[in-house]
Each structure stands twice: as structure tokens, then as C-alpha cells.
Design goal:
Helix 2 links the parallel strand 2 and strand 3. The chain has 5 domains: 122 residues, 3-Layer(aba) Sandwich (Rossmann fold); 97 residues, Glutamyl-tRNA Synthetase, domain 3, CATH 3.90.800.10; 71 residues, Orthogonal Bundle (Glutamyl-tRNA Synthetase, domain 2); 41 residues; 72 residues, Arc Repressor Mutant, subunit A (Orthogonal Bundle), CATH 1.10.10.350. Helix 6 packs across helix 7. The chain is of the alpha/beta class and 445 residues long. The chain contains 18 helices and 12 strands. The chain starts with a strand and ends in a 5-residue tail after the last helix. The strands form 5 sheets. The chain has a 3-stranded parallel beta sheet. Strands 4-5-8 form a 3-stranded antiparallel beta sheet. Bound molecules: glutamic acid (GLU).
Length: 445
């Protein structure tokens, strides 16, 4: 059996931390198993779904490095859902119900007041054809409910283990709203059957949909797929994630200069028994993926941790992965430059600051002109290497008597214009004698 999974966002917004994680868990699982990953756009809600969001989601998924074997739009498959509806009606498993939301709410309240669970009482099943005709004449439009079969529904959840739900404790789910639109329950099952989905992996918020969906698979004579419900993300303070928080949206992370591999590393390791740590490829993350590592408690997603992880990732990324983007920023220092500065960046664009230090022009900061001039006189002739800094500063120390911070800090300020940064022994050969001398002499170079 080839593993086939799908990530099924609704194009009613762009991707954010919560659904990135669902996408990634599906993808890593399929990748590890050598299976297929389908991107399915649940766009049956015409009012809220837009073409622009759909394209935005494709862009977000691609940016993360996730490749899909197939792209499916539910809006292209309405005929399949209609056929499924007809089958359910023929089987007597789909029935019209006419209660308004207010009437349903009243029923719920009454049941609760009597200490009963608020399960739909199936009053609609008792309506005669005349009753229904009369209601429709009054202008009422039915919504359609799936008639559940009594009994225990069981599945072995990939994350939560053995689960069982007594179907009699559930309301018959509404599959079609009074305005004729589908809730996601039925189209999702029809798609999962048609596309051969073997594993439905989604957030814990969908766990309540599973028993009715299993009964739908069975009604259509299909073997239900395996189900896995992963823990959800909460914000840094334990609150629910806000979809409007830009720092939680892929778009925002991108704009902030966060690396896709930092996002995937964070999303794949947060809320697991593995430490949150940078991984240099999706293959590495896939190799480490295991449902057993997912924690049952909500996982905290903190944009500050993501930024820290980004810095750690940049530190370990090989030059090849960033080469093109550095070049696009006008940085031509190649691998030696990357080796020198990679460990000092929070985001890749910080490299521009260090490129200005290496390639100029830079306005030096001179605190003691006499000291810097003396140091300039002691600069050895090129070629320079990593030993140059040690030899030169030893000579400056011998000549001026300065040591420790009093020796190094004025040189750093003169050479880089900053009090912190990469090791000078690696920067100095990249800066070169001409620029170093000029800066020590308080010239822009
Ligand atoms: N469109 C649904 C959602 O975004 C899909 C749920 C599922 O994966 O079954 O929540």
C-alpha cells in the first residue's frame, strides 16, 4: 500500500503556524514512507474562498519546500459530491430537517435543562411528505443530516491510540446547509476515497468529526483510512493562536527574513519529545519524524524562539544553500565570507551589514587617532591569513603597551565601525590591507 496523505486548507486566508504544522506532519510522514502528498484546497465555501488565497497557499507551501504530487480543488469536484448525496438518499442515510438555528438552540437548552445530552432528537424523521411539503410552501429550505448508525465507532489513532465513540451520543451531522452548500464532512470523505488517501492526519480540533466520517466511509463501502490527530499550537502565553497575528503567518515570517528551514525545523520539533533544533533539510526532519514523539499537550509557538532558531540554522547552513540569495543581495564574498559571518546573523539580510564591513565603504569609528595610526604603521604586508591578526596585535601591544579590551576594542571599532561581530582574525584578511590601513587613518574605505 502506497501511503497517500493530503493537506486540506480552506483558501479563506493564508497559511499560519497552526496549519503549517499540519502540512508538515503530513509531508514528513509521507516522505519518510516514500508516499504521496496531495494539496487539496477546500474551497466549497464560495463566499469566503478566493483565488488569491488559493494561490497564496500554494506559494506558502512551495516556499516551505513542500512538494505536492497532486493539486485538487474541491470546487472542481461538485458533481462527485452530488452523486454521493444521491447515493446516501437512496440508502435512506440522508434526510431533510427543517429546524431553524433558533429552534435547534431552544431544543438544546431544554435538553440541557433536563440534564440530557444535547443530541439532535431526529424529529425531522417523523415528518410525513405532507408535513415537508407544507414547510417548503412556507418557504423553509431543509438542511440535510446524515443518519448515524447506533453502536461504537472505533479507530486506532496514530497519535492518541485506541479511540471509541458511541454514535448514539452524537447528533446526526448536517452535511448540506439550507442554502445548499456543503459542510466539509462529506466532500472530504468523497475526496479521500477517490484520491486513495490512506492516512488522514489533522489537528485535534477535528477529532469529533472522525466517528461520523468513519460511518460515511462505511456507508460508501470504503475502508476508512487511518486517522491521526496531532496536538495544537498555542501562543507563547498559552492563549489560542490568532490568525491575524502577522508573525504567525508564513507571509509575515518571510517578510521578517526567517528561513523556510527554520520554520519547518521549528514546526516539526515543537511539541515533540525531540529538542527544538535546526535541521538543514526536510530529509533530515523526515528521518526523525515519528508520531510517537508528538506530545498530547498543546505546544507553544513563540516567534522569539523561531528567530533564535533561525540564527542557529544560519550558523550551520552550508554556503551552497544561501549562495544564490547572497549574490542577489550583491554580496560576492563567496564561501570565505559566509564562513566568517554566518555565525553572527539573526536573519540572512544581516549579511549586508558585514558585507559593507568587508567590501566597504565604511565610516570608521576612531577613539584614539594616535593609537590607530601607530597600529596602521605596524600592519604587515599582504598576503594575509588567519594568523595575521594575532601577529599584528602582538606587535601593536609591544609598541603601545595596550592590552586586552584597550587593545582590541579600538581596532575593532576602527576596522568594522561596530563594537561586536565576527572574529577579527577571519574578518581582517577579507577586509584587506588597503581598507584596513585607510580605516585606521580615519578615512572612509
Ligand atoms: N478543510 C479542513 C480544515 O482546514 C480539512 C480538515 C481535514 O484535514 O480533514 O480544517
Amino acid at each position: 500500500m502506497t501511503v497517500t496523505v493530503r493537506f486540506a486548507p480552506s483558501p479563506t486566508g493564508r497559511l499560519h503556524a497552526g496549519n503549517i504544522r499540519t502540512a508538515l506532519i503530513n509531508y514528513l510522514f509521507a516522505r519518510k514512507a516514500g508516499g504521496n502528498f496531495i494539496l487539496r484546497l477546500d474551497d466549497t465555501d464560495k463566499e469566503r474562498s478566493t483565488e488569491a488565497f488559493a494561490r497564496g497557499i500554494e506559494e506558502d507551501v512551495s516556499w516551505l519546500g513542500i512538494e505536492w504530487a497532486q493539486l485538487v480543488h474541491q470546487s472542481d469536484r461538485l458533481a462527485r459530491y452530488e452523486a454521493a448525496v444521491e447515493r446516501l438518499k437512496e440508502m435512506g442515510r440522508l434526510y431533510p430537517a427543517y429546524e431553524t438555528p433558533e429552534e435547534l438552540e431552544l431544543k438544546r437548552k431544554r435538553q440541557l435543562a433536563r440534564g440530557k445530552p444535547p443530541v439532535y432528537d431526529r424529529a425531522a424523521l417523523k415528518f410525513s411528505d405532507e408535513d415537508k411539503a407544507k414547510l417548503e410552501q412556507e418557504g423553509r429550505k431543509p438542511h440535510w443530516r446524515f443518519k448515524l448508525e447506533p453502536g461504537d465507532v472505533r479507530w486506532n489513532d496514530l497519535v492518541r491510540g485506541e479511540q471509541h465513540v458511541d454514535a448514539s451520543s452524537l447528533s446526526d451531522p448536517v452535511l448540506i446547509r439550507a442554502d445548499g452548500t456543503y459542510l466539509y464532512t462529506l466532500p472530504s470523505v468523497v475526496d479521500d476515497i477517490d484520491l486513495g488517501v490512506t492516512h488522514v492526519i489533522r489537528g485535534e480540533d477535528h477529532v469529533a468529526n472522525t466517528a461520523p466520517q468513519i460511518q460515511l466511509f462505511e456507508a460508501f463501502g470504503a475502508t476508512p483510512p487511518a486517522f491521526g490527530h496531532h496536538n495544537l499550537l498555542v501562543g507563547a502565553n498559552g492563549q489560542a493562536l490568532s490568525k491575524r497575528d502577522r508573525s504567525l503567518a508564513i507571509e509575515g515570517m518571510r517578510a521578517d527574513g526567517i528561513e523556510p528551514l527554520a520554520v519547518t525545523s521549528y514546526a516539526a520539533t515543537v511539541g515533540t519529545s525531540d529538542p527544538v533544533a535546526p535541521h538543514a533539510s526536510l530529509d533530515e526532519l523526515a528521518a526523525a519524524f515519528d508520531f510517537a514523539k508528538l506530545s498530547r499537550a498543546p505546544a507553544r509557538f513563540d516567534p522569539r524562539d523561531l528567530r533564535l532558531l533561525n540564527a542557529k540554522l544560519l550558523h550551520m547552513l552550508p554556503f551552497g544553500i544561501v549562495a544564490e540569495r547572497l549574490e542577489a543581495m550583491g554580496i560576492s564574498g563567496g564561501e570565505p565570507f559566509w564562513e566568517a559571518v554566518g555565525g553572527n546573523l539573526e536573519v540572512l539580510s544581516d549579511a549586508k551589514t558585514w558585507w559593507a564591513v568587508v567590501a566597504g565603504p565604511l565610516d570608521p569609528v576612531i577613539e584614539d587617532a594616535g593609537f590607530c595610526a601607530a597600529a596602521a604603521d605596524l600592519l604587515p604586508p599582504e598576503p594575509w591569513d588567519e594568523a595575521t591578526w594575532g601577529a599584528w596585535t602582538a606587535a601593536v601591544k609591544a609598541k603601545t603597551g595596550a592590552k586586552g579590551k584597550a587593545l582590541f576594542q579600538p581596532l575593532r571599532l576602527a576596522l568594522t565601525g561596530q563594537s561586536h561581530g565576527p572574529e577579527l582574525k577571519v574578518l581582517l584578511p577579507l577586509i584587506g590591507e588597503g581598507r584596513a590601513r585607510a580605516r585606521l587613518e580615519n578615512k572612509i574605505a
